[in-house]
Amino acid sequence: MRRLALEAGDEIMKFYQQDDLGVETKDDSSPVTAADKAADKIISDGLRAAFPDVMLVTEEQADSHSLSGDTFLIVDPLDGTKEFIHKRGDFTVNIALVENGVPTRGVVYAPAKSRMFLTLADGSTIEEEAPFNRDAMGAYSTLSVADSDNDALYVVASKSHRDQATDDYINKYKVKDMKSAGSSLKFCLVATGEADIYPRLGRTMEWDTAAGHAVLAGAGGKVLRFDNHEPLRYGKEDFANPFFIATAPGVDLKPA
């Protein structure tokens, strides 16, 4: 999964340097680029070769969205396409394994920022240091969520999907600082302790969140449904998520 994320990231960066990104509009009105498609082929071909018996769900292959199961690989080959199109750098490659409805292994790679987050076999999460060798892991640090201070929280929110409902919810907390980030990097900022909480009151799909969810869980964090604070599970109908909150466990969550 790590190697495929790096290969896909290299391919994405070739497109990132070009003026024409080959932007098209999908049926749901969201953008897709030639880089999305090229990265998807690298990852899906690699995963199918390595894990032929495991169900694979990927954003860019609509026929996979009708599959059903609670154990599967799930991919967003270029999360944060709007950030990619606008050359803002906050885009990621997301690859995850879901087992019995729970994301257990995940890779989140931000090629334009040279940041790599992944879970290890023991369930812990690390951030590997650049430069990255495809065939051998380099130096890394083990991640752990912040020991959150409810009187001075650090909040991260979506850069492209921020709305009044999100602001109203954030205003229920005592916030020391707030930052915006794109793609699944928001989960990673909670995993590193750079943020305490990431509320998402908007539409997401499981391929948007599974890898970041695994990364955060391996660092001691949680991803909970917004409505009842129950754990967010995977393998739902159409792979669609409800609103959710990604959080360090020490945060005293406010009701919806």
From TrEMBL:
Cofactor names: Mg(2+)
Keywords assigned by UniProt, alphabetized: Cell inner membrane, Cell membrane, Hydrolase, Magnesium, Membrane, Metal-binding
Keyword Membrane found: yes
InterPro entries named in the record: CysQ (IPR006240), CysQ/Inositol_MonoPase (IPR050725), Inositol_monophosphatase-like (IPR000760), Inositol_monophosphatase_CS (IPR020550)
Reaction equation(s) it catalyzes: adenosine 3',5'-bisphosphate + H2O = AMP + phosphate
Recorded superkingdom: Bacteria
Cell membrane is among the record's keywords: yes
Binding positions (Mg(2+) 1): 59, 76, 78-79, 208
Enzyme class, UniProt record, top EC level: hydrolase
Positions with a binding annotation for Mg(2+) 2: 76, 79, 208
GO cellular component: plasma membrane
EC number, UniProt record: 3.1.3.7
SUPFAM superfamilies in UniProt: Carbohydrate phosphatase
Subcellular location per the Swiss-Prot or TrEMBL entry: Cell inner membrane
One Pfam family this sequence matches: Inositol_P
Single GO MF annotation: 3'(2'),5'-bisphosphate nucleotidase activity
Binding residue positions for substrate: 59, 78-81, 208
Entry's Gene Ontology BP terms: 3'-phosphoadenosine 5'-phosphosulfate metabolic process; phosphatidylinositol phosphate biosynthetic process; sulfate assimilation
Its membrane topology: Peripheral membrane protein
Cited function: Converts adenosine-3',5'-bisphosphate (PAP) to AMP.
Protein family per UniProt: Belongs to the inositol monophosphatase superfamily. CysQ family.
HAMAP family on file: CysQ
Identification of the protein by name: 3'(2'),5'-bisphosphate nucleotidase CysQ
Lineage of source species: Bacteria, Pseudomonadati, Pseudomonadota, Alphaproteobacteria, Rhodobacterales
